[in-house]
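STRUCTURE:
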């Protein structure tokens, strides 16, 4: 079973057939919202709005453990995480779709593992390649089949938020090799790996990162919303194609 986690600008999946909501409790507390079960192009899927249906939960306040646990509870095996990001690499311009292949984690203080406490064994998951290769390929193929340009491979730098970055922080991320910057990719990806779920991300570049190009003087939230509104239809098209496959 496929799950889609929707991020900013993607709190609902339009056109989900036979939708029904399910409240799932977890040992880690409540997920961001009830899960929505439905059909996307005839295939059963589960949808979860990462920030809640009303976009009320900030990136650092999201209960990532509960979200991933809830998906596993309902027999999900694959997770596509939709995320909005800032673009650092020159080709990651506003409106681009990107399937990243690496992560640098700058977050702090988030509950980031299931393996803690006296009852849990000390466990070190392999995270050399943080995204599932097969699911990444399925996403890339789906985008290509529906004629959507998509960038294959990028390093996602995950910042703590909720504020955007300074120009100097983005310059540092660039020196670290980051191509994209977002606030929600971690610990979500690591928890999915710990839970044994195949996880990949479809990123939408909403703006150039702080201090770069059009964002040299600052980042405009209204412009971000305009880009997201124009791009989220493409994301839905790619996800429907992925579900159809
Ligand atoms: N930085 C961090 N997260 C983001 C950005 C950004 O510039 N744009 C969209 N999400």
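SEQUENCE:
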């Amino acid at each position: 079973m496929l799950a889609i986690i929707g991020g900013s600008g993607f709190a609902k999946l339009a056109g989900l057939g036979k939708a029904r909501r399910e409240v799932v409790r977890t040992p880690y507390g409540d997920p961001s919202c009830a899960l929505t079960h439905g059909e996307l192009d005839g295939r059963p899927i589960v949808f979860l709005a990462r920030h809640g249906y009303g976009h009320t939960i900030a990136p650092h306040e999201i209960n990532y453990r509960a979200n991933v646990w809830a998906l596993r509870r309902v027999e999900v095996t694959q997770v596509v995480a939709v995320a909005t990001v800032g673009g650092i690499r020159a080709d990651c311009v506003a409106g681009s779709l990107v399937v990243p292949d690496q992560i640098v984690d700058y977050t702090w203080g988030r509950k980031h593992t299931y393996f803690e406490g006296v009852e849990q064994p000390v466990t070190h998951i392999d995270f050399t390649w943080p995204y599932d290769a097969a699911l990444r390929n399925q996403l890339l193929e789906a985008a290509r089949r529906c004629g959507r340009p998509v960038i294959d491979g990028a390093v996602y730098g995950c910042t703590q938020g909720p504020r955007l970055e300074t120009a100097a922080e983005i310059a540092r991320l660039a020196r670290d090799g980051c191509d994209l910057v977002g606030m929600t990719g971690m610990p979500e990806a690591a928890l999915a790996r710990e839970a044994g779920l195949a996880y990949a991300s479809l990123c939408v570049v909403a703006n150039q990162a702080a201090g770069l190009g059009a964002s040299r003087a600052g980042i405009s939230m209204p412009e971000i919303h305009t880009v997201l509104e124009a791009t989220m239809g493409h994301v839905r098209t790619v996800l429907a194609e992925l579900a159809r496959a």
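REMARK: Residues 2-244 form a domain with the Rossmann fold fold (CATH 3.40.50.1580).
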